[in-house]
Amino acid sequence: MFSLNVVYVKGRRWQDQLATAFSEVGALSIFLALVATLIATKSDAAPIIAGIATFVWFMDHAYRIYLDWNHQSSLLNQRN
């Protein structure tokens, strides 16, 4: 919830990056909680579901980094 509040009031680039970092930490925490719960149940499907959840988070994270990189590069090119 804190990251959503920061996203609402962001006005500068560093505030945007801080809000994104909080959001990413929150998403990773949720996935890690899911993985820990699955491992605690000792289900046979736990490693598969944990791997899928981790893969989904990683792909989302990589895509956000890609978008942010392109956005920051375009801003830098506009200044020059």
Unreliable spans: none
Distance between the termini: 38 Å
- Note the beta-strand portion: under 5%
Give the oligomer, counting copies of the same chain as homo and different chains as hetero.
single chain
Q: What's the order of the H and E elements?
A: HHH
Radius of gyration: 17 Å
**Main sheet properties:** none
**Using DSSP, what is the number of strands?**
0
Give the arrangement of secondary structure elements:
Elements: H1 2-9, H2 13-41, H3 46-79
Helix pairs in contact: 1-2, 2-3
What are its keywords?
3 helices, 0% strand, 89% helix, 80 residues, mainly alpha
Description:
About 0% of the residues are buried. About 90% of the residues lie in helices and about 0% in strands. It has about 80 residues and is an all-alpha fold.
In short:
Helices cover 89% and strands 0% of the residues.
